[in-house]
Amino acid sequence: TVDNSKQSFGGMPSPMQYPPMMGLAGFSPQAPMPSDNAPSPILHIAIHNMTHPVGCDVLHHIFSQYGGTILRIVCFEKNGNHQALVEFSEPQAALVAKTVLNGHSVYSDGCTLKIDYSKLQQVNVRANDEHSRDYAAGMPGMGGVRQMGMPGLGFGAMPVPPSQTGSGKVLLVSNLNKERTTPDSLFKLFGTCGDVFRVKILYQKRDMAFVQFRDASHALQAYNTIRDVVFFDNKLSVRHSRMREVPLPPQNGDEMYEGLTQDYTNSPLHRFANPNSKNAQHITAPSQTLHLANLPDGIEEEHVTQIFQNYGTVEHFKFFNNSRKMGLLRMDTTSNAITALVALHGEPLESLGLPANPDGRGLSISFAKSGGAPPPSAAVLPGLPGAAGLGLGLGANPMF
After folding, report:
1. What pTM does this model have?
2. How many CA atoms lie within 13 A of 7 on its CB side?
3. Which of 11, 123, 189, 326 is the most buried (most CB within 10 A)?
4. What does the buried/exposed string (b/e) look like for 77-108 if buried means 16 or more CB atoms within 10 Å of the residue's CB?
């Protein structure tokens, strides 16, 4: 679990912990997709269990973290319920905000958001006051939550907004293969160049996902290494996100049941948790050549080849001269090598038809440099040359 007791919104502590992941074993409900309207740049928000005031400034600060530009916000009461309309400059930003925030609470003790798309073409603002704002007309945005007199404001189970510069440890990955990509496959792919703590595939746009790393240096290394990779036949688009942390979904939502968000904070498969490990010195871009480790005693080359032939043609495999527990295997394509890695890395040997290791360790797979080609950038994980003074150039205008 992650200790979120020090998370804050506008510098004020929030006591709420992220809810634990619900066990998925043996549970496979037929959760229907929501019957919302087609994605719209305007969101309709109903705020339930209204324990504190939630006005335009608070909503602007929350929803502006998800890309685009917020043009207008109107808050109103209807049938005794507090509601709001938030208009974005583009539907994509509204879709991401809805997917991430729906069902979460603004405060640790209430103000739960129920978000749908609006059928309106534009939000009409009659006056600029605490109930409505036209930001497109040049009105200032949030003037700072500290001056608003709302003690205890904290996102609770919502994602905590970033600071002015952002923490830089979350990446937004798009153009995913919706039929084949899972949180586990993204964890294993991006985990080859940084420790991944959380993965969230967007519930209503499953070709996009957020990937959260141990810290900004791990995210930067992954960005430099994975951003142009072809994964399950799709060329990935990777960019830096404004989000500080990837939220876990509400416990009673469809997203929880489908397992689209996973927490890997305590995973034994982290490659760089040990500061004395040499793994960070061998980070390289995905290639046809795979480095295998933790192979059991007594196996032959054909045993290894047979396992990997399920994922493509194996061109060559050879044990290391000084250790038959390690070897290099070359697949016919880089794409097939990636598929083999995300399918087999960390798997128990006995599940692959091999003798188990006495220490119980599973198969370890990483990418190896092909033909002596250098990686696309120097490793920048903590403790390596180049880690200091990076300045974290996160690229211009990250969207989300």
Report:
1. 0.65
2. 25
3. 189
4. eeeeebebbbbbeeebbbbbbbbbbbbbbbbb
β-bridge mates for residue 201, sequence order? 209
Q: How far is CA 396 from the centre of its chain?
A: 20
Per-residue pLDDT of 91-148, as tens digits, reads: 888 988 888 888 888 887 889 999 999 999 999 998 888 899 998 886 444 333 333 3
User: Is the alpha carbon torsion for 65, 66, 67, 71 positive or negative?
Assistant: negative
Spatial neighbors of 167 by CB under 8 A, at least 6 apart, are 215, 216, 244
Contact 206, 176 (CB under 8 A): yes
Closest by CA position to 206, among listed 183, 231, 239: 183
